[in-house]
């Protein structure tokens, strides 16, 4: 039987079954699988119950599998199968011995799962066991009953009476702690089931049961537990009793006659916080009790609220206890439940705790109030009460309290705001942000404190970012009060979210047609405030932006009748808003992109600022935003951006066409000056904006008064104030040129006439720098006025009224007690230099297409160059050189023009002031970083950049290749310097100069480039310089030369090959460097025209004399590469080339250098042998060692026969030529001709001497001896007989001898 059962179980294991597939009709030719039959619920339960009955396998696992099967299928079982399962599980659940705890638990869980479909059967089984025994039932019967009540609360209701009655009969028999816990579990779950039924009784199909029925069943049990079990000492029993008590107390609350006993046990329930270790069970019981309390809606006294709140609050605020997050959430939930029952008393208690000395208590109270916000908003009550409570701790110095207040504010503002009671909290967000900014700026905080303040700022910004203006009541709350935080500078960090809120509010108002039903009567739009009203009431003028119309106020409120939130608000004027937002936009990337936010807010508020600007701003502001799009802070041209903003301001003021409004803007701009630190970018822009507003103002007396005010009130010892004054005066000069010039002249005259008593006071004033500061400012003021003046008005006054006064103030600053001296004030020098540059630019711009003229040009030029000459040569102590180069460049473009010699001297002076400066120290020492060396490198780089601009300006004076050649000759001294840093700077200047000429080559009108060859020869050695930057710059110069050469030939330069080679010149590997140099030489040398070959060779030979072996080697390689590439084209240049080489030979005694020279001569001889021989024969006798060596080199390098034949032919004809021409030559030439045979004979001797063996000499004798013998006979004057027979001559030449005397 067991074998059959095992076979059946194996077939049905894993929930499947197997059946044999039928044989197909085609005899098995095609097979098709038949899906296995899915086992039914009965099959699986039967299989598992049989396994339990046969005691096979692990019973716990079997029960767990059975539980999963029952939970996954709602089908019903056959009666037999059901009975077998219940019997097996009931038996194991109640077994006292032989069954483990795990098996009993698993069996109990199976019964609970089985109750899902067979609840009555399972409940009957459990009730049977409770009734059958006259004594206490098994523990797991109670456990299972508790699980059933927890899982199927409503289905347990019909059995509540009998179950609780059965428990009454057994309570006196409970003796073990285990049984007590089990019984308490049943009481807890069945009481909760009854409470669940009372909530949802309408869902039950059976007749309704009343509260009295449940309470009458529970009351005896409650009394027994109170009388017998509340004194348990063990933790587990206490927890069990606690759960049962809380559930029964909740149930008894439904019946009024039992409530008294319930309230009597409330102190016991709260006292459990001090008794049990795990207080989370107490909190769960309390929260359940409060839930029922809220459902039955029983009024509760203040004392009970106080007691419950105190108990919960102490659990949260006691720092010695650290409840888990889940427990804290449950404690907060208790407060929420209590607030639903009695909100006034609950909020009052929390309000009282905000005054506690304990920081933790205050923080907990704020967190609980924050938790109440959401429920209060849903109920539409208590929000003003909550806000009023929190308002009492806004000034609390604790950072933790501040953080809690901010979190409360964020929660409050996310709900529906029905009144303006929350405005103080909104204002507190800005105030806290400002306080944190101040504390961080002070810099006396610890690391932890800095982090806390930064977190507070981040939380403030998060609140502002999360503000949803669409929330009901938010428009009434925020508009226009938020505007008061736009202007003050301490709120700059909040401007991005603030701008977003204000823009959305403005859009909502615009959509509503300014008649939003949410708007409060005390809030009105801005009104234009004229200068006349401001002059009547200066105390309430635009200062601070809080002026209001008398009587009207904000929407008709008068005096104390106005609400507190309007009394406290200081709304800015439209001019103040415009000024502030423009200042913020001037630094668009500061503060996380405040500039873009400011522009968008400006566009949104156009109607509030002035009604006339809407159309203009609709075009201008999008253009400004588009300009900023995609530009990072490093890519943005700050000067151009400020120019665009000032232009925007000017066009806006021209659109407004209101002098009073414009004067009000000027006043607001000056008022906001004190909000920013000195030397700040904001202050500098404000000065410029003030100047622009004065330029737009046509009220001349007002403009005059403002200019005088700034001239008189400026502290001339502060550079920032001097620059600000200059910006104001220059800006006003755009429209009031003559007025500005007149005011400055008057001020300068008054300054000179100002009496200073005593020589000591004059000397003291000089030492303090007051006079120098004034003169410096006025020097720059005049030039800036010229720069901003209208073009048509400037020429008439530039000489006498501007440049004359500039020189006058400079000379006056160089006098002390009537004695003139050379100034050492760097600022004064820089001021004059910058003034010269600005005046030059102004004159040049005023001239239009014609060249401007300045009579003071030479005087100014001499003064500026004197400053440059006086600068120390051992350091770059000031930007005088840089500024001077810029000024000279601009000045050189004016008439009268300088001569070429003067420009050459000017260039030489400038180069001598920069090139010898010491080299920058490399950042290789420990601790040296790129950031440390950057301040040193920047002045040098800027100075070299200014020098390049000066070179360009001087080149433009005469755009010809001859003038370029002279400029390059001036640079040549520094290109060949022995100091590597001087060569590097010279190469940089050379690259700038050649690049400028390349760009302007078409303008020169030339079709050739003379210095190409000489420059290539000069730069060739430098491609192997010791500095990588020098090598690359030399390559860049060669690239410019190639492109210039290509333009003359109208062919494209080989840029694709040259550019990569220039990059490779920076390689540290010597072999790679030489390869790049060789390849570059092959590309460049083929472009050298033959007419410039001698220039190239001369420069290259000079480069071979370099003390740097690599450079000398490079020069030699370039020379040989040129001769290999272009030697065949140099026929007419050979004598001159040989002469150049011959001249250099005495100075080149090193073997490596001489080998290059000899190789060069050999290469030339390969192409032009006769020309080389003729050139060498021109050397005078006696032959020097260099000439001898050249003949020998030719003998070694070429076929001797070829060379000797040429020499022998020349020797044969030398006598005849001498006889024919002796009568026609002068005596000196006749002597030279007489020596020619001797030169040839000596040349033959040197060539023959290079032969290494006697055999080689013997082979040459048949041809050589007759010629030599003939020369001997000619020399001796005796004619030697030679055989005339050609046959004998041939035999002689063949080496045959004869007995006859050949001379006969």
Automatic annotation (TrEMBL):
Entry annotated with the keyword Magnesium: no
InterPro entries: ARM-like, ARM-type_fold, HEAT_MROH2B-like, Maestro-like_HEAT, Maestro_heat-like_prot, MROH2B-like_N_HEAT
Alphabetically ordered keywords of this record: Repeat
Transferase keyword on record: no
Ranges where the MROH2B-like N-terminal HEAT-repeats domain occurs: 53-249
Gene3D superfamilies reported for this sequence: Leucine-rich Repeat Variant (1.25.10.10)
Occurrences of domain MROH2B-like HEAT-repeats (ranges): 253-514, 569-956
Lineage top rank: taxon: Eukaryota
Spans through the membrane: none
The Maestro-like HEAT-repeats domain, residue ranges: 981-1196
Region (Disordered): 1279-1304
Protein name: Maestro heat-like repeat-containing protein family member 2B
């Amino acid at each position: 039987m067991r074998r059959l059962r095992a076979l059946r179980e194996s077939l049905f294991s894993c929930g499947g079954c197997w059946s044999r597939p039928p044989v197909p009709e085609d005899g098995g030719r095609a097979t098709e699988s038949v899906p296995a039959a899915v086992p039914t619920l009965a099959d699986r339960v039967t299989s598992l119950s049989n396994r339990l009955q046969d005691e096979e396998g692990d019973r716990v696992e079997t029960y767990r599998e059975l539980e999963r099967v029952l939970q996954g299928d709602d089908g019903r079982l056959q009666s037999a199968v059901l009975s077998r399962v219940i019997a097996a599980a009931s038996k194991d659940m109640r077994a006292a011995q032989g069954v483990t705890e795990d098996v009993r638990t698993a069996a109990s869980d199976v019964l609970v799962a089985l109750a899902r479909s067979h609840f009555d059967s399972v409940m009957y089984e459990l009730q049977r066991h409770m009734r059958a025994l006259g004594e206490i039932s098994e523990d797991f019967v109670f456990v299972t009953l508790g699980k059933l009540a927890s899982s199927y609360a409503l289905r347990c209701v019909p059995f509540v009476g009998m179950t609780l009655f059965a428990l009454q009969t057994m309570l006196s028999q409970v003796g073990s702690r285990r049984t007590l816990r089990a019984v308490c579990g049943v009481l807890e779950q069945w009481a909760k089931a009854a409470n669940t039924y009372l909530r949802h009784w309408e869902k039950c199909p059976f007749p309704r049961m009343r509260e009295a029925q449940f309470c009458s069943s529970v009351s005896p049990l409650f009394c027994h537990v109170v009388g017998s079990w509340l004194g348990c000492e063990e933790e587990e029993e206490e927890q069990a009793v606690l759960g049962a008590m809380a559930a029964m107390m909740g149930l008894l609350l439904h019946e009024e006659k039992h409530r008294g006993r319930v309230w009597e046990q409330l102190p016991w329930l709260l006292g459990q916080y001090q008794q049990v270790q795990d207080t989370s069970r107490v909190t769960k019981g309390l929260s359940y009790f409060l839930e029922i309390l809220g459902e039955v809606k029983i009024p509760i006294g203040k004392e009970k609220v106080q007691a419950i709140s105190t108990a919960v609050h102490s659990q949260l605020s006691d720092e010695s206890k650290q409840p888990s997050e889940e427990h804290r959430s449950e404690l907060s939930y208790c407060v929420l439940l209590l607030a639903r029952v009695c909100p006034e008393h609950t909020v009052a208690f929390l309000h009282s705790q905000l005054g506690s000395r304990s920081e933790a208590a205050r923080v907990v109270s704020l967190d609980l109030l924050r938790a109440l916000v959401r429920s209060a908003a849903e109920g539409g009550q208590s929000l003003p009460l909550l806000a009023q409570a929190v308002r009492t701790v806004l000034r609390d110095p604790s950072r933790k309290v501040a953080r809690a207040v901010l979190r409360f504010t964020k929660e409050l503002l996310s709900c529906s705001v029905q009144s303006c009671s929350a405005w103080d909290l909104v204002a507190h967000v800005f105030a806290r942000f400002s306080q944190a900014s101040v504390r961080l700026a002070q810099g006396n905080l610890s690391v932890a404190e800095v982090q806390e303040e930064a977190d507070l700022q981040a939380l403030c910004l998060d609140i502002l970012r999360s503000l949803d203006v669409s929330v009901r009541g938010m428009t009434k709350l925020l508009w226009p009060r938020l505007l008061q935080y736009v202007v003050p500078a301490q709120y700059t960090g909040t401007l991005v979210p603030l701008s977003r809120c204000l823009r959305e509010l403005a859009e909502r108002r615009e959509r509503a047609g300014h008649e939003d039903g949410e708007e409060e009567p005390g809030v009105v739009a801005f009104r234009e405030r004229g200068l006349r009203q401001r002059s009547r009431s200066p105390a309430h003028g635009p200062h601070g932006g809080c002026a209001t119309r008398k009587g009207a106020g904000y929407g008709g409120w008068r005096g104390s009748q106005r609400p507190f939130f309007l009394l406290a608000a200081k709304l800015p004027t439209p001019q103040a808003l415009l000024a502030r937002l423009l200042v913020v936009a001037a630094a668009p990337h500061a503060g996380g992109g405040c500039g873009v936010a400011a522009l968008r807010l400006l566009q949104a508020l156009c109607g509030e600022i002035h009604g006339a600007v809407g159309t203009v701003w609709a075009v201008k502001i999008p253009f400004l935003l588009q300009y900023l799009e995609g530009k990072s802070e490093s890519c943005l041209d700050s000067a151009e951006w400020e120019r665009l903003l000032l232009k925007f301001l000017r066009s806006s003021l021209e659109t407004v066409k209101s002098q009073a409004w414009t004067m009000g803007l000027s006043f607001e701009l000056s008022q906001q000056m004190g909000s920013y630190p000195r030397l700040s970018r904001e202050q500098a822009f404000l000065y410029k904006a003030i100047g622009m507003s004065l330029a737009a103002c046509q009220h001349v007396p007002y403009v005059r008064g403002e200019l005088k005010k700034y001239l008189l009130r400026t502290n001339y010892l502060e550079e920032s104030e001097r620059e600000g004054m200059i910006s104001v005066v220059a800006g006003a000069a755009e429209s009031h040129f003559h007025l500005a010039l007149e005011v400055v002249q008057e001020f300068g005259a008054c300054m000179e006439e100002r009496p200073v008593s005593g020589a000591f006071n004059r000397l003291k004033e000089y030492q303090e720098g007051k006079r120098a500061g004034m003169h410096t400012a006025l020097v720059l003021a005049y030039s800036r006025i010229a720069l901003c003046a209208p073009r048509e008005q400037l020429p008439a006054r530039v000489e006498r009224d501007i440049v004359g006064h500039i020189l006058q103030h400079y000379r006056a600053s160089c006098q002390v007690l009537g004695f003139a001296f050379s100034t050492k004030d760097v600022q004064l020098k820089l001021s004059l230099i910058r003034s010269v540059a600005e005046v030059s630019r102004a004159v040049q711009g005023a001239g239009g297409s014609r060249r401007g003229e300045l009579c003071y040009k030479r005087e100014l030029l001499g003064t500026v160059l004197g400053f440059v000459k006086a600068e120390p040569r051992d350091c770059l102590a000031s930007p005088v050189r840089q500024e001077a180069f810029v000024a000279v460049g601009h000045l050189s473009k004016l008439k009268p023009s300088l001569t070429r010699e003067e420009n050459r001297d000017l260039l030489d002076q400038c180069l001598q002031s920069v090139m010898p400066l010491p080299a920058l120290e490399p950042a290789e020492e420990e601790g040296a970083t790129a950031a440390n060396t950057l301040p040193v490198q920047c002045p040098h780089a800027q100075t070299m950049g200014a020098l390049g601009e000066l070179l360009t300006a001087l080149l433009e004076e005469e755009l010809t290749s001859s003038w370029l050649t002279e400029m390059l000759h001036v640079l040549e001294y520094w290109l060949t310097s022995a100091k590597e840093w001087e060569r590097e700077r010279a190469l940089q200047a050379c690259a700038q100069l050649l690049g400028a000429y390349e760009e302007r080559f078409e303008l020169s009108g030339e079709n050739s480039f003379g210095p190409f060859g000489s420059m290539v020869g000069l730069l060739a050695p430098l491609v192997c310089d010791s500095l990588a930057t020098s090598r690359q710059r030399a390559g860049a110069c060669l690239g410019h030369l190639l492109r210039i050469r290509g333009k003359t030939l109208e062919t494209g330069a080989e840029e694709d090959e040259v550019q990569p080679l220039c990059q490779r010149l920076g390689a540290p590997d010597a072999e790679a460097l030489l390869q790049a140099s060789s390849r570059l030489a092959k590309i460049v040398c083929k472009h050298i025209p033959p007419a410039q070959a001698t220039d190239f060779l001369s420069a290259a030979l000079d480069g071979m004399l370099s003390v740097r072996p690599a450079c000398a080697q490079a020069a030699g390689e370039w020379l040989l590469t040129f001769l290999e590439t272009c030697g065949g084209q140099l026929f007419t240049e050979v004598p001159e080339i040989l002469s150049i080489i011959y001249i250099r030979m005495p100075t080149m005694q090193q073997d490596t250098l001489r080998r290059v020279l000899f190789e060069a001569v050999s290469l030339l001889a390969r192409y032009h042998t006769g020309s080389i021989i003729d050139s060498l024969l021109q050397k005078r006798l006696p032959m020097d060692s260099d000439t001898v060596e050249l003949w020998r080199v030719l003998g070694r390098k070429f076929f001797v026969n070829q060379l000797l034949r040429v020499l022998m032919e020349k020797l044969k004809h030398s006598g005849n030529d001498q006889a024919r021409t002796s009568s026609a030559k002068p005596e000196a030439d006749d002597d030279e001709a007489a020596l020619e045979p001797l030169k040839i004979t000596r040349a033959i001797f040197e060539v023959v001497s290079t032969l290494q063996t006697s055999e080689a000499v013997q082979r040459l004798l048949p041809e050589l001896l007759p010629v030599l013998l003939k020369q001997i006979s000619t020399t001796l004057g005796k004619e030697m007989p030679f055989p005339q027979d050609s046959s004998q001559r041939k035999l002689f030449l063949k080496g045959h001898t004869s007995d006859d005397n050949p001379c006969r």
